[in-house]
Automatic annotation (TrEMBL):
It is found in: Cytoplasm, Stress granule; Nucleus, Nucleolus. PANTHER family: ENDONUCLEASE V. This is Endonuclease V. Endoribonuclease that specifically cleaves inosine-containing RNAs: cleaves RNA at the second phosphodiester bond 3' to inosine. Active against both single-stranded and double-stranded RNAs. Has strong preference for single-stranded RNAs (ssRNAs) toward double-stranded RNAs (dsRNAs). Cleaves mRNAs and tRNAs containing inosine. Also able to cleave structure-specific dsRNA substrates containing the specific sites 5'-IIUI-3' and 5'-UIUU-3'. Monomer. Interacts with PABPC1; the interaction is RNA-dependent and stimulates ENDOV activity. The lineage of its organism: Eukaryota, Metazoa, Chordata, Craniata, Vertebrata.
Amino acid sequence: MTALPEDSVEKWKSEQASLKQKLVEGDTEEWQTAPGFKGLERVGGVDLSFIKGDDVNACSQLVVLSFPEMELMYEDSQMVTLSAPYVPGFLAFREVPCLLEALQRLERTQPNLLPQVVFVDGNGLFHYREFGVACHLGVLAGLPCVGVAKNLLQVQGVIRSEEHQSQIRALKKGGDSFPLKAASGRVLGEALRSSDSSTKPIYVSVGHRISLDTAVRLTHACCRFRVPEPIRQADMRSREYLRTHFPSADTCG
Protein backbone atom coordinates (compact mmCIF):
# COMPACT_ATOMS: atom_id res chain seq x y z
CA MET A 1 0.00 0.00 0.00
CA THR A 2 1.33 3.43 -0.95
CA ALA A 3 0.54 6.68 0.82
CA LEU A 4 -0.67 9.38 -1.56
CA PRO A 5 -0.21 13.09 -1.02
CA GLU A 6 -3.31 14.59 0.56
CA ASP A 7 -4.04 16.73 -2.50
CA SER A 8 -4.08 13.58 -4.69
CA VAL A 9 -6.54 11.89 -2.35
CA GLU A 10 -8.78 14.94 -2.42
CA LYS A 11 -8.60 15.02 -6.22
CA TRP A 12 -9.68 11.37 -6.40
CA LYS A 13 -12.50 12.00 -3.93
CA SER A 14 -13.70 14.90 -6.06
CA GLU A 15 -13.59 12.79 -9.22
CA GLN A 16 -15.50 9.98 -7.52
CA ALA A 17 -18.16 12.43 -6.35
CA SER A 18 -18.49 13.88 -9.87
CA LEU A 19 -18.86 10.47 -11.51
CA LYS A 20 -21.29 9.37 -8.80
CA GLN A 21 -23.73 12.02 -10.03
CA LYS A 22 -24.08 9.95 -13.23
CA LEU A 23 -24.73 6.66 -11.42
CA VAL A 24 -28.02 4.90 -12.20
CA GLU A 25 -29.09 2.37 -9.56
CA GLY A 26 -32.22 0.96 -11.18
CA ASP A 27 -32.93 -1.40 -14.06
CA THR A 28 -32.67 0.24 -17.48
CA GLU A 29 -32.87 -2.72 -19.90
CA GLU A 30 -35.87 -4.84 -20.88
CA TRP A 31 -34.02 -8.09 -20.25
CA GLN A 32 -33.45 -7.12 -16.61
CA THR A 33 -37.14 -7.46 -15.76
CA ALA A 34 -38.07 -10.14 -18.31
CA PRO A 35 -38.80 -13.71 -17.11
CA GLY A 36 -35.60 -15.73 -17.22
CA PHE A 37 -33.72 -12.59 -18.35
CA LYS A 38 -35.09 -13.10 -21.85
CA GLY A 39 -33.12 -10.97 -24.31
CA LEU A 40 -29.86 -11.28 -22.40
CA GLU A 41 -27.31 -13.05 -24.62
CA ARG A 42 -23.85 -11.75 -23.62
CA VAL A 43 -22.37 -11.35 -20.13
CA GLY A 44 -18.91 -9.95 -19.55
CA GLY A 45 -16.35 -10.46 -16.82
CA VAL A 46 -13.18 -8.50 -16.02
CA ASP A 47 -10.26 -9.14 -13.71
CA LEU A 48 -6.57 -8.45 -13.21
CA SER A 49 -3.91 -10.99 -12.27
CA PHE A 50 -0.40 -10.24 -11.06
CA ILE A 51 2.93 -11.98 -10.84
CA LYS A 52 3.67 -12.33 -7.13
CA GLY A 53 6.09 -9.66 -6.01
CA ASP A 54 5.20 -7.34 -8.91
CA ASP A 55 2.33 -4.98 -8.17
CA VAL A 56 2.86 -2.81 -11.26
CA ASN A 57 2.65 -5.21 -14.21
CA ALA A 58 -0.54 -7.24 -14.59
CA CYS A 59 -2.63 -9.21 -17.03
CA SER A 60 -5.86 -7.35 -17.76
CA GLN A 61 -8.59 -9.78 -18.78
CA LEU A 62 -11.97 -9.39 -20.44
CA VAL A 63 -14.21 -12.33 -21.29
CA VAL A 64 -17.65 -12.39 -22.88
CA LEU A 65 -19.78 -15.48 -22.29
CA SER A 66 -23.08 -16.53 -23.80
CA PHE A 67 -26.11 -16.45 -21.52
CA PRO A 68 -27.41 -18.74 -20.16
CA GLU A 69 -24.98 -21.34 -21.55
CA MET A 70 -21.86 -19.64 -20.14
CA GLU A 71 -19.82 -20.54 -23.23
CA LEU A 72 -16.86 -18.38 -24.25
CA MET A 73 -17.62 -15.94 -27.08
CA TYR A 74 -14.64 -13.57 -26.75
CA GLU A 75 -11.52 -13.08 -24.66
CA ASP A 76 -8.88 -10.40 -24.47
CA SER A 77 -5.67 -10.80 -22.43
CA GLN A 78 -3.30 -7.83 -22.29
CA MET A 79 -0.22 -7.11 -20.21
CA VAL A 80 -0.59 -3.64 -18.70
CA THR A 81 1.51 -1.38 -16.50
CA LEU A 82 -0.48 0.21 -13.70
CA SER A 83 0.44 3.80 -12.97
CA ALA A 84 -1.60 4.39 -9.81
CA PRO A 85 -0.77 2.80 -6.44
CA TYR A 86 -3.24 0.73 -4.43
CA VAL A 87 -5.02 2.95 -1.93
CA PRO A 88 -8.05 1.57 0.00
CA GLY A 89 -11.26 3.07 -1.33
CA PHE A 90 -9.62 4.16 -4.60
CA LEU A 91 -8.99 0.83 -6.35
CA ALA A 92 -10.84 2.11 -9.44
CA PHE A 93 -8.13 4.65 -10.22
CA ARG A 94 -5.64 1.80 -10.39
CA GLU A 95 -7.64 -0.82 -12.29
CA VAL A 96 -10.44 0.80 -14.29
CA PRO A 97 -8.35 2.48 -17.03
CA CYS A 98 -7.09 -0.83 -18.46
CA LEU A 99 -10.46 -2.58 -18.01
CA LEU A 100 -12.24 0.28 -19.75
CA GLU A 101 -9.68 0.14 -22.55
CA ALA A 102 -10.45 -3.56 -23.08
CA LEU A 103 -14.17 -2.85 -23.41
CA GLN A 104 -13.53 0.05 -25.79
CA ARG A 105 -11.22 -2.12 -27.88
CA LEU A 106 -13.98 -4.72 -28.21
CA GLU A 107 -16.53 -2.04 -29.10
CA ARG A 108 -14.26 -0.76 -31.88
CA THR A 109 -13.38 -4.14 -33.37
CA GLN A 110 -16.38 -6.41 -32.73
CA PRO A 111 -19.26 -4.29 -31.42
CA ASN A 112 -21.71 -7.18 -31.91
CA LEU A 113 -19.92 -8.99 -29.05
CA LEU A 114 -20.04 -6.12 -26.55
CA PRO A 115 -21.47 -7.49 -23.28
CA GLN A 116 -24.92 -6.38 -22.17
CA VAL A 117 -23.76 -6.50 -18.54
CA VAL A 118 -20.31 -6.68 -16.96
CA PHE A 119 -19.38 -8.53 -13.77
CA VAL A 120 -16.53 -6.89 -11.88
CA ASP A 121 -14.32 -8.60 -9.30
CA GLY A 122 -14.87 -5.95 -6.64
CA ASN A 123 -17.51 -3.79 -5.00
CA GLY A 124 -20.03 -1.33 -6.40
CA LEU A 125 -22.21 0.68 -4.02
CA PHE A 126 -20.85 -1.38 -1.12
CA HIS A 127 -17.97 1.02 -0.62
CA TYR A 128 -16.71 3.76 1.72
CA ARG A 129 -18.29 6.48 -0.41
CA GLU A 130 -20.81 4.24 -2.23
CA PHE A 131 -18.83 4.32 -5.47
CA GLY A 132 -16.57 1.30 -5.86
CA VAL A 133 -14.75 -0.08 -8.88
CA ALA A 134 -17.92 -1.59 -10.43
CA CYS A 135 -19.66 1.80 -10.29
CA HIS A 136 -16.63 3.59 -11.70
CA LEU A 137 -16.30 1.18 -14.64
CA GLY A 138 -20.04 1.10 -15.27
CA VAL A 139 -20.42 4.88 -15.45
CA LEU A 140 -17.38 5.36 -17.70
CA ALA A 141 -18.30 2.44 -19.99
CA GLY A 142 -22.00 3.29 -19.99
CA LEU A 143 -22.85 -0.37 -19.38
CA PRO A 144 -24.82 -2.21 -16.71
CA CYS A 145 -22.32 -3.47 -14.14
CA VAL A 146 -22.46 -5.74 -11.10
CA GLY A 147 -19.85 -5.77 -8.35
CA VAL A 148 -19.07 -9.16 -6.83
CA ALA A 149 -16.53 -9.38 -3.99
CA LYS A 150 -15.26 -12.63 -2.51
CA ASN A 151 -14.47 -11.05 0.86
CA LEU A 152 -16.45 -8.72 3.10
CA LEU A 153 -15.42 -5.08 2.97
CA GLN A 154 -16.02 -3.88 6.53
CA VAL A 155 -17.50 -0.49 5.79
CA GLN A 156 -20.27 1.85 6.92
CA GLY A 157 -21.05 -0.21 10.02
CA VAL A 158 -21.13 -3.58 8.25
CA ILE A 159 -18.65 -5.75 10.14
CA ARG A 160 -17.74 -9.41 10.48
CA SER A 161 -19.70 -9.69 13.73
CA GLU A 162 -21.35 -12.68 15.35
CA GLU A 163 -24.65 -11.43 13.93
CA HIS A 164 -23.12 -11.42 10.44
CA GLN A 165 -21.79 -14.95 10.93
CA SER A 166 -25.21 -16.06 12.16
CA GLN A 167 -26.83 -14.63 9.04
CA ILE A 168 -24.34 -16.55 6.92
CA ARG A 169 -25.20 -19.80 8.73
CA ALA A 170 -28.88 -19.14 7.99
CA LEU A 171 -28.24 -19.26 4.22
CA LYS A 172 -29.42 -22.82 3.56
CA LYS A 173 -29.28 -23.14 -0.23
CA GLY A 174 -27.99 -21.50 -3.39
CA GLY A 175 -29.86 -18.25 -4.05
CA ASP A 176 -30.42 -17.43 -0.38
CA SER A 177 -29.18 -13.97 0.60
CA PHE A 178 -29.39 -11.25 3.22
CA PRO A 179 -28.98 -7.46 2.95
CA LEU A 180 -25.81 -5.57 3.82
CA LYS A 181 -27.29 -2.66 5.72
CA ALA A 182 -25.18 0.40 6.55
CA ALA A 183 -25.41 2.17 9.90
CA SER A 184 -27.60 4.73 8.14
CA GLY A 185 -30.13 2.00 7.32
CA ARG A 186 -29.35 2.10 3.58
CA VAL A 187 -28.93 -1.32 1.95
CA LEU A 188 -25.65 -1.28 0.03
CA GLY A 189 -25.59 -4.86 -1.23
CA GLU A 190 -26.41 -8.46 -0.39
CA ALA A 191 -24.49 -11.46 0.85
CA LEU A 192 -25.40 -14.33 -1.48
CA ARG A 193 -24.97 -18.05 -1.11
CA SER A 194 -24.21 -18.62 -4.76
CA SER A 195 -24.54 -22.41 -4.91
CA ASP A 196 -25.75 -25.31 -2.79
CA SER A 197 -22.18 -26.60 -2.48
CA SER A 198 -20.63 -23.29 -1.38
CA THR A 199 -21.24 -22.23 2.22
CA LYS A 200 -19.08 -19.09 2.05
CA PRO A 201 -21.09 -16.20 0.57
CA ILE A 202 -20.12 -13.67 -2.06
CA TYR A 203 -20.98 -10.00 -1.72
CA VAL A 204 -23.06 -8.49 -4.52
CA SER A 205 -23.69 -4.80 -5.06
CA VAL A 206 -24.99 -2.51 -7.79
CA GLY A 207 -22.41 -1.12 -10.20
CA HIS A 208 -24.50 0.83 -12.71
CA ARG A 209 -27.82 0.61 -14.58
CA ILE A 210 -29.17 -2.37 -12.63
CA SER A 211 -31.20 -2.84 -9.45
CA LEU A 212 -29.88 -4.79 -6.49
CA ASP A 213 -32.59 -7.44 -6.79
CA THR A 214 -31.77 -8.00 -10.46
CA ALA A 215 -28.03 -8.00 -9.74
CA VAL A 216 -28.43 -10.71 -7.09
CA ARG A 217 -30.72 -12.89 -9.22
CA LEU A 218 -28.46 -12.55 -12.26
CA THR A 219 -25.34 -13.32 -10.23
CA HIS A 220 -26.94 -16.51 -8.96
CA ALA A 221 -28.02 -17.43 -12.50
CA CYS A 222 -24.40 -17.09 -13.65
CA CYS A 223 -22.91 -19.25 -10.89
CA ARG A 224 -21.78 -22.81 -11.53
CA PHE A 225 -19.46 -22.61 -8.56
CA ARG A 226 -19.02 -20.01 -5.81
CA VAL A 227 -17.92 -17.14 -8.09
CA PRO A 228 -20.07 -16.14 -11.10
CA GLU A 229 -18.72 -17.68 -14.27
CA PRO A 230 -17.76 -14.42 -16.06
CA ILE A 231 -15.44 -13.44 -13.18
CA ARG A 232 -14.21 -17.02 -12.66
CA GLN A 233 -13.32 -17.35 -16.35
CA ALA A 234 -11.59 -13.95 -16.39
CA ASP A 235 -9.53 -14.93 -13.36
CA MET A 236 -8.63 -18.37 -14.74
CA ARG A 237 -7.67 -17.08 -18.17
CA SER A 238 -5.58 -14.17 -16.87
CA ARG A 239 -3.66 -16.54 -14.59
CA GLU A 240 -3.17 -18.97 -17.46
CA TYR A 241 -1.84 -16.14 -19.63
CA LEU A 242 0.74 -15.29 -16.97
CA ARG A 243 1.71 -18.94 -16.49
CA THR A 244 2.21 -19.31 -20.24
CA HIS A 245 4.26 -16.14 -20.70
CA PHE A 246 6.05 -16.18 -17.34
CA PRO A 247 6.34 -19.92 -16.57
CA SER A 248 8.68 -19.54 -13.58
CA ALA A 249 6.53 -17.00 -11.75
CA ASP A 250 3.76 -17.44 -9.18
CA THR A 251 0.54 -15.56 -9.87
CA CYS A 252 -2.09 -13.91 -7.73
CA GLY A 253 -5.46 -12.27 -8.39
